Protein: Glutamate--tRNA ligase
Organism: Micromonospora siamensis
Amino acid sequence: MTVRVRFAPSPTGMFHVGGARSALQNWIYAKQQGGVFVLRIEDTDAARNKPEWTEGILSALDWIGIERGGYEGPYFQSQNAGEHRAAAQRLHDAGRAYFCDCTREDVQARTGSQYTGYDGFCRDRGLEAGEGRALRFRTPDEGVTVVVDLVRGEPTFENKLIEDFVIARGDGSPVFLLANVVDDMTMGITHVIRAEEHLPNTPKQQLLWDALGVKPPIWAHVPVVVNEKRQKLSKRRDKVALEAYKDEGYLAGAMRNYLMLLGWAPSGDREIVPWSVIEDEFRLDEVNPSPAFFDEKKLRAFNGEYIRALGVDEFVAACQPWLTGTDTIAPPPWQPEEFDAEAFAAVAPLAQTRIAVLSEIVPNVDFLFLAAPLIDEAAWAKAMKEGAADLLAAAVAAFEALATWDAESLKSTLEAVGAERGLKLGKAQAPVRVAVTGRTVGLPLFESLEVLGRERTLSRLRAARVRLP
Ligand code: GLU
């Protein structure tokens, strides 16, 4: 039997990191089993779907390593509507489903104030199909439904607690629960690996598989992804869009490594490992079923490690989108003609060891390309205390006299200027840094001054001196 798994997102919003995690798990499982990964876009909720979300899913998958052409599909659920209706009809014809014209209020009036599920009123009324009549599945009164789940063992559900659920609406359109099963059936899916949120649907879906006479798949419900307050990640509250992380400058490699650690870890106390190790070692039955904490701080730290592991040329290339701007990344504060690739290449290795996400490259290097630095006023106030004017004037005089303009000489010169005033190098650096870069933190100062050059450094120091009383 060839293993066939599927990833079945609904294109109703930005692509969620939890979805990316499930997609990767499916992808690896298929690869390990010599199986097939199917992509199915569940687009039957016409009111909430947008084609651009579908495109977003495809490109996000591509980014994370699930490349177009490497899987079967994408299929679109809406194209299978005929099959969904036919299955509903078959269930009705076999006596496994019946029409029902009860409203929620009707049921509530019969069962008391709380709606606790459908009461089976129409089960034996023999209603024909008709406008406004929903089709309900006749769940067995007895017995249990045992779900074989690679992550959760064998969750067992009592059939008598499962209401006669709706499988097609009053207008005849099949609901998600049925469409999803029929698609899995027609696509020959053998393993359904999906998020825990769907577990409550599973006994109902398994009953549908049984009623339609096909052996149900093996399930694997992977843990819900939560924030630091143990709340399920939500797009209203948390940063969940894979694209947002991409645009902030997370590397795909770091992201997918981190996503695979949600509920699982490779052997030997390691977390940052080559993708091939994850592909080898990942086991669905080792996934911890408890909620998985999406720790953004940890992801940042991961990303910093991945950035540092790049070759300098790769790092320079990876920074390009932030140095120019793209459709989704804001342009930098300098004009394209102000950018100097050579100066950038000179400071790139210094930046590479310091930034955790690639977008941070911009505030670290903007002083090199702008005619005047962007002065952060809070930084200015902090650095330009008493004595700053005198120090800047002395630094200008000493730097002007330098025979060679290099980091070493600049450093020893400023050290001497500071010492004459009883200042340690750190203190002496602060006004110089703010005058030249506009900020209190950034790349190593003297290397920065070397790359910026004599003229521009001196003119910025003089301009700052003039601004001070
Ligand atoms: N379309 C469903 C979702 O995006 C997935 C259902 C499934 O994986 O079975 O939540």
In short: The chain has a mean pLDDT of 96. Residues 8-10, 42, 180, 192, 194, 198 surround glutamic acid (CB under 6 Å). The chain is about 45% helix and 10% strand.
